[in-house]
Specification:
Strand content: 25-35%
Helix content: 25-40%
Number of helices: 9
Largest sheet: 5 strands, antiparallel
Radius of gyration: 18 Å
Low-confidence stretches: none
Number of strands: 14
Length: about 270
């Protein structure tokens, strides 16, 4: 796509460089920015020059830089520390994008989260594993669960000038037994529903519903629920919607079916 409105491009190397002039937009991988016209954008500010380490693993969990590519995260998951069993769903989430290796090697985790599409697979992953966003701002840095950062299809709570620095996945979620399921109306179509589920070391369980709803919904239980309890909770999630890729009733029904499939696996 020729972005004909863009007149400037600069690489950010310090935090001061992230202050935006009128018309400028932050860019990481740019796979979405370069896919369609950006009439309000006159300049790109490239985050990749900040030199952030892609991944930082320690006893507290995994810190994923906003500029970490999806390919790099998948490669880490394939060699993740043995206790971090939930890393097994990272490739499943990446595959839910139905993207080519070219996209995986360019698109970033932070970009997918900030784009905040209902079917954003990195949103599904991070919301399902209690991901917390680290947000930089001139008015003071803040942290926010990814499930709350995304406010709708393509919208977030980020204010202009705020920058997603990283996402932290806590160790307790990474040590869980986890599963991810997705469904689409077409074999290679956009996800109509993505459901994640996990059982933590303390026995608590967490289910996440995305793609079927405008924004992520996270359901928490003190133990693995029975089938009826889980189905009722999933069906009561707010925000099921209808579009050409599926009706709200279909999304609600398949989300409940995927959640039950996960529940049986985790049981």
């Amino acid at each position: 796509m020729d972005i004909t409105t863009v007149r400037s491009f600069r690489t950010a190397r310090t935090r001061d460089d992230l202050r935006l002039a009128e018309g400028e937009t932050i860019m990481a991988g740019g796979t979405w920015l370069m896919s369609e016209p950006q009439p309000a954008t006159t300049g790109f500010v490239d985050l990749t020059g900040m030199g952030w380490a892609d991944l930082d693993a320690d006893a507290e969990g995994l810190r994923i830089a906003a500029t970490c590519t999806i390919a790099r995260l998948v490669a880490f998951a394939q060699k993740a520390p043995a206790p971090w069993t939930a890393a097994s769903i990272i490739p499943d989430a990446a595959n839910a994008l139905l993207a080519s290796f070219k996209i995986w090697n360019t698109a970033t985790v932070g970009g997918n989260v900030c784009r905040a599409f209902a079917a954003g697979a990195m949103v599904s992953l991070c919301a399902g594993l209690d991901g917390v966003a680290e947000i930089w701002s001139d008015d003071g840095d803040r942290e926010l669960p990814v499930a709350e950062l995304v406010t709708g299809n393509g919208t977030t709570s980020l204010a202009r000038g705020e920058v997603l620095r990283a996402i932290r996945l806590p160790a307790h979620a990474l040590r869980s037994r986890a599963a991810l399921r997705k469904i689409a109306l077409a074999e290679h179509g956009r996800s109509g529903a993505v459901v994640t589920g996990r059982v933590d070391p303390d026995g608590a369980s967490v289910f996440g519903v995305t793609a079927a709803t405008w924004r992520p919904t996270v359901l928490r239980f003190t133990a693995l629920p029975d089938a009826a309890t889980l189905a009722a909770a999933v069906e009561d999630c707010p925000g099921y919607y209808t579009d050409p890729l599926g009706s709200a009733d279909w999304r609600r029904g398949v989300a409940a079916a995927l959640a039950e499939d996960i529940r049986r696996e985790l049981a």
